[in-house]
Write a structure and sequence with these properties.
This protein is mostly helical. 75% of the residues lie in helices and 0% in strands. The mean pLDDT is 87.
Amino acid sequence: MSAASLNTTRLGIFCMLAGMFFISLNDMLIKSLSGNYPLHQLVGLRSGIGILIALAILQYEGGLKLLRTGKPLLHIARGLLIVFANSAIYAAIVVMPLATANALYFVAPLFVTLLSIPILGEQVGPRRFIAIGVGFVGVLLMMVPELNGSGGGGYGWLVVLPVLAAAGYAMMSVLTRKLGATSRASALAIHMQVAFISVSLLMYLVAGDGRFVDADTSASARFLLRAWVWPEVGDWWPIAGLGVLSGFVGYLMSQAYRLSSASVVAPFEYTLLIYALFWGWTVFGEWPQTIVLVGAVVVIGSGIFVFLREGQIRKV
């Protein structure tokens, strides 16, 4: 590997590490604010600030002409998928520890490998299929105790939300691979912010007055559907922080996969669990059950094997 290629790879890894840290901060801030504001109000405000940052980066990379695309429907589908994934994972974060939600969410890379077969035409050998199967066993280790009532967390079917979020994120990632060949990272980030803003405005029109919330509404549904309110003065700083983080996360993640191969940078996504454990413990006094940590190790180990195996095959 040449010095230039090595530096590019290292930059891709740095972008991934920075992106994961910013995502963990984003998750922590949203959970902190979830008791007073609906999700899509926070997302709308966040993206309103984030799109300004993304536009500044776009201008630096070449200007508005980079937003032109011959695949508008794929961009729309990608945007709706990331909105769905975010809604599902944040609805889960409200009721369960950050680390638990993220551990279940880590099945996403395994979904990506499976979806790359029909969508990208990639071939997956028996070793990776076995690793994917083992990874899903790890997910079941974390989910089944809650589904049958023996887990003690009281999450019930809500434990499925992070897995649904992972599936949505995986489909979005596969589309990003297709679009990344012709779209810059800044353009992809702006398309994502536009999707968030559009859905947030739609949610305001449909449920912004809180008409769908009553005393029996679950915590997750209440977070999605409660009435929009004007933020308190002290909350504007963390909301602005969400916007800044959002502006950089979309760019950093897209840039990481543009600069380095997925097999190199994707395993660094798992550093998110370390950050989630830290914020959950220090800010919310949370710690996941032992079975969650065991399942997370199985899922992460399977994911890393899949990525490393993919890297070996691409070198042949």
